[in-house]
Amino acid sequence: xxxxxxxxxxxxxxxxxxxxxxxxxxxxxxxxxxxxxxxxxxxxxxxxxxxxxxxxxxxxxxxxxxxxxxxxxxxxxxxxxxxxxxxxxxxxxxxxxxxxxxxxxxxxxxxxxxxxxxxxxxxxxxxxxxxxxxxxxxxxxxxxxxxxxxxxxxxxxxxxxxxxxxxxxxxxxxxxxxxxxxxxxxxxxxxxxxxxxxxxxxxxxxxxxxxxxxxxxxxxxxxxxxxxxxxxxxxxxxxxxxxxxxxx
Length: 248
Prior knowledge:
By secondary structure, the chain is of the alpha/beta class. The chain contains 8 helices and 15 strands.
């Protein structure tokens, strides 16, 4: 495991040279929030990182329900039984193996590794705009129907799960990068992801922390250029009111 640190965000990278799978720890004043749980063995590295930082993990947030993001969840819940698990209301269904679609959703199949034997269920179901400590929950359907990103409102660092990737070249989920095509192949609906990334850009993120690849500082221009290549119109209005309303 490699541990990298930017702003209030610690990246825990497993298999970084072969098949990088990341989870993240966000540092609060007295506690830590874990975002995603990596692979089945990642719990050891997660707990080691928390001890090294010197604060307890008090919340577990999930960006989405794919297996490489919930791999250690059952084991961590055994070790930390009083730590609540948060996930979007929509992706809570994926945690139970339910791939069904709502009538209002695009009729494209849910792809990727959906867990079949996961025991843990969410304690708290998130909706767009919920605040969890310093983190703002932002609904970003596309990679999965209930994908969520989390922005630290103290510094606009954005943890995006698989909504974007940096491994193999920056991409929006659904855009294939030949050197690392896996997030694209596991994406439910590319057009929904594009809409979600346009939404994220309005928050002017200072950092992108993706599920696969290195963290990217000052990502605005990179995101804009990638969106431009999709021939989608990029919004220019910043969501200041939205952030301010949800700030602690």
